[in-house]
Amino acid sequence: MFKKTFFQIHWFLGITAGLILSLMGVTGAIYSYEQQILKWINQDSYVVQAQSQPKLSPVQLYQHFTTQDPALKINSITIAKDPTASSTVNIAKEGERRGYNMMVNPYTAQVLPEIKGRDFFQFIQQLHRTLTLGPVGKQITGACTLMLIFFVLSGLYLRWPKKHSLRQWLFVKPKLKGRNFIWDLHAVVGTWVVVFYLILGCTGLYWSYDWWRSGMFKVMGVEQPKPQMQEGGRERADGSGRQNQQRSGRPQSANDAPQMGQQNHRQAGAARSADRQRGREESALSPVQIQQALNLSWTEFNQKIGRDYSTLTINLPKKADGSVELSFVDVVAQHERARNSATYNYQTHQIEKLELYEDKKLNEKIMSSMLPVHRGSFFGPVYQFFALLASLAMPLFFVTGWMLYLKRRKQKRLTQAARHQLADHYIDPDATPWLITYASQTGVSEQLAWRTATSLQEAHQPVTVKPVQQLTQDELKNASQILFVVSTYGTGEAPDLASGFEKKFLESQLDLTHVRYAVLALGSQEYPDSYCYFGHRVNNWMKQCGAHALFDLIEVNNANNEDIQRWNHALAKASQLELQSMSIEKTFDTWILDKRTLLNPDSLGTPAYNIELTPKHEVHWQAGDIAEIQPGNSAIRIEQFLQKHQVHPETWVDSLAISIQQALWDKDLTVEIEPFGNMEHLLEQLPTLPTREYSIASIPTQLFLRLTVRQQYNQQGQLGLGSGWLTEHTQLNDPIALRIRTNESFHLIGDNRPIICIGNGTGIAGLMSLLHARTRQDYSENWLIFGERQRQCDFFYQSTIEAWQTMGMLKRLDLAFSRDQEQRVYVQDILRQQATELKAWIDRDAVIYVCGSIEGMASGADQVLNEVLGEAQVDELRLNGRYRRDVY
User: Fold this and answer.
1) What angle do helix axes 178-192 and 394-420 make, rounded to 10 degrees?
2) What CATH number belongs to 749-887?
3) Would you state the CATH architecture of domain 589-741?
4) Is residue 583 helix, strand or coil?
5) Residue 685 and residue 671: Cα distance in Å, rounded?
6) pLDDT digits over 439-479, tens only?
7) Beta bridge pairs of residue 314
8) Which CATH code of 3.40.30.10, 3.40.50.2300, 3.40.50.360, 3.40.30.50 fits the domain covering 434-575?
9) Ramachandran class of 204: left when φ > 0, alpha when ψ lies in -120 to 50, beta otherwise
10) Which of 673, 690, 745, 714 is nearest to 556 (CA)?
11) What does the DSSP 8-state code read for residue 528?
12) What is the pLDDT of residues 397-412, one digit of tens each?
């Protein structure tokens, strides 16, 4: 029971305080290397060109700056032994409580550029200590630090095994799966960082609570400095050395607070400092006396100190008692705060006081160097680096802890559900029913609608799925939860079968104030002007009818799985149900490019090719189906990308066991990428190229798959992804990644009713598959209307079509070659000319198939059909499946 209670407290505090501790860990890691980072990005301020003459002495620097500006008040001067290191002159400046550190060239006294990045690290420091929320934030971070100590101790207790082994304690077991691996990662890595987190937590509380700080002094056996005995300027400007050069204008660091007065004594300290300042001004030395003091102190102290140092800081004397305070850092210092202090009397020529850091006892060193202990530099650079890694690992425990919690929660729910479940798909009778309706042209929306329904049913929800064309007004009014999964077709149109719904409902007004709804809109960003337009129309109509959106409309670009997951997550959040992830799986098969021939040599249009592929496996498809191709990059494009990013083509990708040149074949190389440390990181930033779809021009009994592909060019004159891949970049016998996608809305009817095939350009492909299937069934009632530019160059598959006509398999063939006569003639013109014949075929139950470009041909043909047959009859044809389109 005791262990269970500990466990409950451990995970509860973990999921509540974990985010703040993660933030504190990351910011602490950044801040721990503040000095190194600032020096690295400010080389022009910290480093100068070494010269043959000696550096300017403190008195020379003093004379230089006071001559330039007699009103300038100098607090201290720091000289470094390193010939390439700059000197520091700390001056009084309004708003800078600790003075302003001016970096100067030690040979010329030229003022060097101001330190960049100090404001950033000040923000990081405040974020780390107080979350930038002041006293309230300080209390939050303090409480979370206490929780960190509890996590460490309770974590050790909770994972304490009955049998101990080094492997069990310290080695992650990658063969574990699922929850077991997450727990092992959480526990083992937690063991690695136990010491670091205990030190970070105990020292971090030093600045959070006065009682903790006082307790630390007592436990360590060190007398706690009393605030009233501190001089605010000691560490402020005159004892800082180079360690404080980057901190002008703010406290040097948190661990200086006890040495200079705690925060709760700041106001009193400020008053005392003001009194001391007035006293100093009354007894201030003259410039000549200061120069004499600096000259004697600098010369004689260097002669008498008897030890080397890296930097020496002289604080300007304030009183005429002959004393000058100095601080210096050893050549090899234990850490950045390991300073020595001295008082030199230039009148008696004696060192009156000398306190060496190395002579202090360990407990005194720790209590006077709390920040180096906290950040790890007190224990050396190796420990500091591992402390950095431990801090950066803080989010790992937050994430894995949440994952373990969610998995436990999910398992608990599943267990409870299993107790009440009577069947595989137990439906909760008290749950509110869902109505899922879809508008699909090529089947993607329908597939997503059913997958959404399955996901809800697995969560025990009652679901009804219907196409929008079958919805009635009563169903809309009676439903309380409706999900729309709708595609946009053509240039912003509704799918063909949804046109009746569009006219019947979207132009009317219903009272749907009782309805909660959501819209998943499918489209393609390649058509930005009409992207997901029909989905937005449905969404706006629902709003106008007073319905309440469960969440904002979600757009899906080309069936992108990330977009689909956003829909799934949004639905789970809005319904407060645990829904299984869903996606449209795209598994590509390997096909071989067997044949590629130019169909239109000397054409006025761009080249169009006949592409024939053979499978390496058994495949099935129907006339009217679509081939989805995964295009790739040309060898030249990959080479240019690798050269741009200075990557050798044969660099190995361990996770894929192939070279980077091979791994880039299907990646989008046009996106902006950030600097990468390895090939895996590079590949993570590169999305897969979008797929391309083509109408299939053959049927399975022909033993090959035929495509008709016209080369497309972008605005930069480069070949399009799909057309370039199929017509130029791949070679014969090369593999092609292809999958068959069913296109039910363009499938061939199963009886001998007449069909009218209308198409232009490469749209002939979809019509050819239909006619091939019809001829194999000996159905001869076929009418083909085809258009292109010139008969001589652009009559695609002429011999086959004319053979069908000769054999009587084509009852009618009408051609429209627009450039063969002065007045251009198009497919829609043929339809208008043959209006009487068109009506006669429709009266005989003919089915219309349109394949080709939406711009011009398909929209023009649709307009003529409405003119000739009437809008009502065209709508009826759509609804009855007698007007089918595959246009793009």
Assistant:
1) 150
2) 3.40.50.80
3) Beta Barrel (2.40)
4) coil
5) 8
6) 887 777 888 888 888 888 888 888 888 888 888 888 988 99
7) 77, 326
8) 3.40.50.360
9) alpha
10) 690
11) G
12) 888 888 777 766 664 5
